[in-house]
Design goal:
about 725 residues; alpha+beta; nine-stranded antiparallel sheet; nine-stranded parallel sheet; 14 helices
Length: about 725
């Protein structure tokens, strides 16, 4: 049983294939965290929780004269502000009196078959083959009628535990939620590193590993989206953890808006991890009888390094978070016209591009920004989702038909959340955009953001999109969002509810995406936010792939895709071959290397085929054939980071291995060319040590490839790459 309860001792133990998570309601009703780690026989681990009198650590009144009992020094399952715990808390409640002090005690619990769902929010779900259970523990504030329902989802075989929180006001007056985080994990022992993924536009999810020191280390976003700058996925790791050894804990926030993730090392050396909605732009008024639901956090423990944690997240995201036809269906190789034309195109130009792309083997043509309204640059048109037939020289149906007659599928770009001041929609409804009264708005990319917390705004945009999507045969939609949110103010909400705007905005976004998924189940939706500005687990519930970064430079993509891979599977990473010199960096790389890197994703092209040489076109034909040949191995195989682009100067290498270990694909990129270069090798992983494998007609024992390694090829030009197919030999 995935959830085991010792009623006599109020002990709750959650078990997955390899992990154990345990908590206990103690004699004073405090829900104490006892252990999170490797699975063992069930035992009461509260013996590990030692206490003593710590000066200036408060004691609850119910503890009487026991000065050693303090929530300030205990591992608390869900800490609340005002309880005597001076560390950062998961919950801060403000009552109608203005007081914020609260104290939570155990009230009840419930166990349910299956994995819980959250109203209006994305969440992991259980499949038919999964053993899944839900534990709901209810805590009650000792002085007011606020109930806190802690949700725990256990996917036993998938090795993942999820957590969410629901706050219920059963009192007679409103309360204000100033802070609601979804998860707290206290570790009373250990020296840890905090791993996060930082960046900027066009350089997202760069790997950062720092020692957890005394004080608070935090990453987060107050930009209205999860952001290019920090990702809502972090890892707490033992200081000696590597890819293949050591303990680590991964935390993924299933939400696409403002977030906070932090690690705090306290006075006694304990480490607290918190994750949830960032409190900076958050204050939720909860009227009597109302409930607030916080988003979900998914947790994965590994005792064998980052690699195992990654594999668990990859499988769970692919199978238990992504939904619909395209979570497993083979996706088309596409070409997007953006870097090939930008705004300068006509219908005839697009058809000419599509015709040449078809000759090379491309399967989907995507028309990017510039097809609607008055939209020949960044200054105008957003919000006017009406086809500019004058620019195209035809109707959208005509263009779609011409593309389909070539034998290609057809896709289209939208940016539904944003609006230009120079647009008919803005002139008609200026109050629909986020603006602070009596203040000029902050612009970004010359555009404002529509208030998706308002139903009439969502319904209008959704209906405009449907008119376009229903007017032609469209198999793909790229959903973009090209700015951070500023001037967070909703004209519809009263003053005491303005703090709900950011949260309700994200729920509004999810509602529109859900409606699109329901109405167009055969249409592939790709998420995008200036590239990777909203690459998170929440979006993957609605869009099975996300444009990884606006930076298409193959060498920079090595770091971007490396960092992304720690939590997110290859099948979710939009990756394209673009033109050189690269439009973001000016770097020149061989088209073979650009393809090697892009194949570690969904694979496609972002260029004008008319500017390619005959030799390049032939090579693209072969690239697409190669990708199709190894499609299942790349998209469904087990992914291994063989080297790090941060630690290995000369080569970056990764590997895909089939579930049955019968074949593998090794991809290698030389990143530093030197005269009279040194000999190098890589040790493969994931093979069967008892099998023999063939690589380029040479045979090797699996054990030799993994223990002794494979010599790396010596590069003959800068940024050369190789793809080596490994095939088991039938003995």
């Amino acid at each position: 049983m995935a959830i085991q309860i010792d009623h006599a001792n109020s002990l709750f133990t959650l078990l997955t294939k390899n992990s154990m998570y345990q908590m206990k309601a103690d004699s004073l009703g405090t829900l104490v965290h006892t252990r999170y780690g490797k699975r063992t026989p069930v035992f009461d681990y509260s013996y590990l929780n030692k206490s003593c009198d710590r000066g200036f650590s408060g004691n609850p009144y119910s503890a009487g004269k026991n000065r050693t009992y303090s929530l300030d020094t205990m591992p608390v399952e869900f800490p609340v502000y005002g309880s005597g715990d001076y560390r950062d808390c998961a919950l801060k409640i403000r009552y109608s009196s203005g007081a914020s002090s609260a104290e939570l005690t155990f009230d009840s619990y419930e166990v349910k078959e299956g994995k819980y769902a959250l109203p209006g929010l994305p969440a992991f779900y259980s499949c038919q083959e999964d053993t899944a259970h839900t534990l709901i523990i209810t805590l009650k504030d000792t002085t007011n009628s606020v109930f806190v329902h802690l949700y725990y989802g256990v996917l036993e075989e998938k090795d993942i535990i999820t957590r969410a929180v629901c706050i219920e006001n059963k009192g007679d007056s409103p309360v204000y939620l100033d802070r609601v985080l979804s998860v707290c994990a206290d570790f009373q022992y250990g020296e840890y590193d905090f791993i996060s993924f930082y960046g900027r536009h066009a350089m997202e999810r760069l790997y950062s590993r720092t020692r957890v020191h005394h004080g608070v280390q935090a990453v987060g976003s107050t930009r209205g989206a999860s952001s290019h700058h920090y990702n809502p996925f972090v890892v707490l790791a033992d200081k000696n953890t590597t890819e293949t050894s050591g303990e680590c804990y991964g935390f993924s926030f299933v939400y696409s808006g403002d977030f906070l993730a932090e690690a705090e090392k306290d006075q006694t050396g304990q480490t607290r991890v918190l994750m949830g909605i960032h409190p900076e732009n958050f204050c939720y008024k909860l009227d009597p009888g109302q409930t607030f639901t916080a988003p979900e956090t998914a947790m994965v423990y590994s005792s064998t390094g980052f690699e195992s944690m990654t594999h668990t997240f990859h499988k769970a995201i692919r199978n238990n978070l992504c939904r619909g036809k395209f979570k497993k269906a083979e996706r088309p190789v596409l070409i997007n016209n953006w870097e090939g034309t930008y705004f300068d195109f006509t219908g005839d130009k697009l058809v000419a591009m599509a015709s040449e792309a078809k000759e090379m083997g491309v399967e989907l043509f995507v028309m990017d920004d510039g097809w609607f309204g008055k939209r020949d640059n960044d200054f105008s048109g957003l919000g006017d989702w009406i086809v500019n037939e004058k620019k195209l020289g035809c109707t959208l149906k005509d263009l779609s038909d011409r593309i389909h007659n070539l034998g290609l599928k057809f896709g289209i770009w939208f940016e539904p959340e944003c609006i230009s001041e120079d647009s008919d929609l803005y002139r008609a409804h200026p109050d629909w955009a986020f603006k602070v009264p009596e203040k000029k708005p902050v612009r970004s990319r010359y555009q404002l953001v529509l208030d998706f917390s308002r139903k009439e705004v969502r319904d209008y945009i959704f209906n405009m999109m449907c008119k376009v999507l229903d007017s032609a045969k469209i198999e793909y939609l790229k959903w973009d969002f090209n700015r951070s949110i500023g001037d967070l103010y909703s004209a519809e909400l009263p003053a005491d509810r303005q703090g709900e705007t950011a949260y309700k905005y994200v729920l509004g976004l999810y509602e529109v995406l859900e409606n699109l998924n329901q109405r167009y189940p055969d249409m592939l939706i790709e998420g995008c936010s200036g590239g990777g500005g909203r690459f998170d687990a929440g979006m993957l519930y609605y869009t099975p792939q996300i444009w990884t970064s606006d930076d298409t430079d193959a060498i920079e993509r090595l770091k971007i895709q490396y960092g992304t891979s720690f939590a997110y599977p290859v099948s979710t990473m939009g990756a394209h071959v673009s033109a050189v010199p690269n439009h973001q960096t000016g770097r020149k790389t061989e088209i073979s290397t650009r393809a090697t890197v892009a194949m570690a994703g969904t694979f496609g092209y972002e260029l004008d085929p008319a500017k390619l040489t005959t030799e390049e076109k032939e090579e693209i034909k072969n690239q697409i054939k190669t990708f199709r040949k190894y499609y299942s191995l790349i998209q469904d195989g087990i992914y291994y980071r063989l080297t790090s682009p941060y630690e290995d100067e000369e080569y970056t290498a990764w590997e895909f291995v089939s579930e049955d270990k019968q074949e593998a694909l090794i991809s290698i990129v030389n990143t530093k060319l030197t005269a009279n270069g040194m000999f190098s090798r890589i040790k493969l992983r994931g093979l069967n040590p008892d099998l023999w494998y063939s690589i380029d007609n040479t045979e090797y024992p699996g054990a030799a490839l993994m223990e002794a390694g494979l010599p790396l090829p010596i590069p003959s030009f800068e940024y050369e790459s190789w793809n080596l197919h490994v095939k088991a030999i039938n003995q």
